[in-house]
Amino acid sequence: MRTGPAVLFIVACACGPTKRFDQDLQGREKPTAIWYRTDVSHVRQVIHAPVEVVWRVVPASVESLQFPGTPMAYPEDKIYVTPRLKIEHRLYPDESNSLYLNCGITNGGSQPAADEYLVIFALMTRLSPTPAGETEVDIIVDGTAQDMKERFLPVRCNGTGRFEEAIIARIEANLSATTN
Predict the structure, then answer these.
(1) Directed axis angle between helix 162-179 and helix 51-63, to 10°?
(2) What does the DSSP assignment read for 108-177?
(3) Is 105 exposed, middle or buried (0-12, 13-18, 19+ CB in 10 A)?
């Protein structure tokens, strides 16, 4: 297992959003970079099932939120990531982006940046075995938001816990459906 306080995971996958910002000049998808950092919020939960069983339902659980994804290049690490996803307006109708993403407030200080700025983010779901033979699920959201009118420098974004909790709930539901 490759671990450390700050490790950069880079993934190239054949999946991705339909927008062209994720491709290079030759039409190939750009690698996705997600920082595994100890200084951002992680949502962790232990699932009462072995890693291999949980791993089988992770893709469907993440993709049920309408996020494409792919396993990391090292299959033994059990890491599932999305490509960079771009939000120009609303991610989900009738819900503020700031319910899911914490990007601070706008430069004017009146609105959540996730609701006003262009947001690019990715999700990483990492599975680790516990000594009891269960699975620890660790999910992080990493991204940036940028004011496209004023062109200020981008600000960092992380998850509020809502995406992460939804993925964990879907993992548990998918596990229940496969065992019943």
Answers:
(1) 120
(2) TSSSBHHHHSEEEEEEEEEEEE-TTS-EEEEEEEEEEEE-TTTTPPPEEEEE-SHHHHHHHHHHHHHHHH
(3) middle
Q: What distance in Å separates the CA atoms of residue 26 and residue 9, rounded to the nearest whole number?
A: 23
- 85-87 and 118-129 strand pairing: antiparallel
For residue 29, the 8-state DSSP code is B
Neighbouring residues of 65: CB distance < 8 A, sequence distance ≥ 6? 163, 166, 167, 170
Residue that is written with structure tokens 């991705």 in the block: 16
Question: Using CA atoms, how far apart are residues 116 and 109, in angstroms rounded to an integer?
Answer: 11
* pTM as predicted: 0.75
At 163, which amino acid appears?
F
Q: How far is CA 125 from CA 42, 44, 98, 153, in A?
A: 10, 10, 21, 28
Selection from 6-10, 11-15, 176-180 with the highest mean pLDDT: 176-180
- Please list, in sequence order, all residues whose beta carbon lies within 8 angstroms of the beta carbon of residue 62, skipping any fewer than 6 positions away: 69, 80, 82, 123, 125, 167, 170
At which residue do the structure tokens 């307006």 appear?
Answer: 89
pLDDT tens digits for range 139-168 = 999 899 998 777 777 889 999 999 999 999
